[in-house]
Amino acid sequence: MSEKIKSRFGATAEDCLASIPPWRKRLTAFRMDLAYFKRYRMEIDLRDRVLAPVAPLPPYRLLAWDPVLIEGFAVAKFVSFRYELDAHVFPCLGDLTGCRRLMHEIARKPGFLPETTWLIACPTATGGLEYVGTIQGIRDREGHGAIQNLGVAPNHRNAGLGSLLLTWALDGFRRAGLTCVQLEVTAQNEGAIRLYRRFGFSVVRTVFKAAEPAYA
Ligand SMILES: CC(C)(COP(=O)(O)OP(=O)(O)OC[C@H]1O[C@@H](n2cnc3c(N)ncnc32)[C@H](O)[C@@H]1OP(=O)(O)O)[C@@H](O)C(=O)NCCC(=O)NCCS
Description:
Layout: H1 2-8, H2 13-19, H3 22-25, E1 35-45, E2 61-64, H4 70-81, H5 86-89, H6 96-108, E3 118-123, E4 129-139, E5 145-152, H7 161-175, E6 180-186, H8 190-199, E7 202-211
Helix pairs in contact: 4-6
Bound molecules: coenzyme A (COA).
């Protein structure tokens, strides 16, 4: 079972054990039946960074956080993550109910930062709005900014929307008085890592996230 998981998605418990120093192994309980995903914690120092948030090109619209839009945020999260690796790492990202629950949890957190939380909408042919991208941010217990989920729906990628959302979120962290912003990204998510590095994020730590094989 663990070999199958490894070949498709991530690291096995054995890989994790091999990668950590002996002194930490005593402090770590591993379950051999779980899949372990290698993830990077990345960080950016916003001091001296030039951020120039701009409006998206038509037909896209950028919407600021508003509690009445929470369903739109959940839908954008779902359509962005449902077929992605992170839906195996965090199964709630793979279904709409899970994304709704997650959005409510984020919005209720004491450190939730509305100014870092954005939604991209695109008009549909029938006069409605399709929600195609989102980012959310909080202030964590250590007082750092923490990006929760950045996602853009597959049909709308490679058009600058991910970069645009990240720029607006980082600008929001700065307006909230934060200079250090962190995020976690799965090591195999090369496109996202490239995007973060381009902005000036660097890896500060490697962590492993366990996930039930049922989802792997
Ligand atoms: C990671 C993610 C958010 C990037 O979103 P995106 O909207 O495609 O991001 P951008 O368009 O700003 O940048 C992506 C690429 O398009 C390029 N690009 C940007 N604007 C462009 C444009 N107008 N025309 C063509 N290409 C463009 C960028 O240079 C970048 O190139 P690269 O892949 O070689 O680095 C998106 O792939 C995604 O949602 N993935 C699934 C969810 C996920 O894994 N999120 C990250 C969790 S940590």
